[in-house]
């Protein structure tokens, strides 16, 4: 009986932890849509100097 109780306790803990992780993953996907954070796969563009800037000799 005690082994069954321990097994059920571990199962409940595992399910609670899994639900928390899944909720966290879903929240992290929705935050960029709210404008809170930028998506992790967002790329930043770097503009290189052009001849119009007068920096063609670099």
Automatic annotation (TrEMBL):
Source organism, top-level taxon: Bacteria
Name used for this protein in its record: Uncharacterized protein
């Amino acid at each position: 009986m005690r082994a069954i109780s321990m097994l059920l306790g571990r199962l409940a803990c595992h399910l609670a932890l899994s639900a928390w992780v899944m909720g966290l993953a879903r929240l992290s996907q929705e935050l960029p849509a709210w404008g809170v954070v930028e998506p992790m796969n967002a790329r930043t563009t770097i503009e290189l100097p052009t001849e119009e800037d007068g920096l063609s000799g670099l």
